[in-house]
Q: What sequence folds into this?
């Protein structure tokens, strides 16, 4: 049974690592030049925070899967919501850093917020600890959503053909 625990716990890290790896060169060059609010966390804090958050959400997903008896019909909605939010989570870095599309990144994170709340609500009836393990993630997402809104507003996208 430990293999399932490890697998579910590690899964969120896969997309997070790939997102970082693919976009790692754009982060120090492009991101550092953006106007950001004074309360923006330091860049070094992000990998630490995401390691903790991905571990918590991964383990929480294992608890739900286990409590529902694996891939049963009862697991479709709670784990489907989880999978959908994880896909949006993984999509944010390529939209923000890769495509540098702040508007699409903002739309993505707003949809992500809704899916995470939905995931937590569906999980609470199944396993309260699993739902509570998602609370730090939701808190971090609230900050990340506010940060994305500020960056989008403070860094208007340049129109093609216009230069400074």
A:
């Amino acid at each position: 049974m430990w293999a399932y625990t490890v697998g579910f716990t590690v899964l969120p890290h896969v997309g997070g690592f790939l997102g970082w790896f693919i976009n790692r060169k754009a982060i120090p060059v492009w991101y550092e030049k953006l106007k950001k609010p004074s309360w923006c966390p330091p860049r070094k804090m992000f990998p630490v925070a995401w390691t903790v958050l991905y571990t918590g959400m991964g383990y929480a997903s294992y608890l739900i899967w286990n409590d529902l008896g694996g891939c049963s019909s009862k697991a479709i909605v709670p784990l489907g919501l989880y999978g959908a939010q994880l896909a949006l989570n993984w999509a944010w870095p390529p939209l923000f850093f890769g495509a540098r599309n702040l508007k699409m990144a903002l739309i993505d994170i707003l949809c992500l917020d809704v899916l995470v709340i939905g995931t937590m609500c569906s999980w609470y009836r199944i396993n309260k600890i699993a739902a509570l393990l998602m609370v730090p993630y939701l808190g971090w997402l609230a900050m990340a959503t506010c940060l994305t809104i500020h960056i989008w507003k403070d860094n208007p996208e340049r129109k093609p053909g216009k230069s400074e």
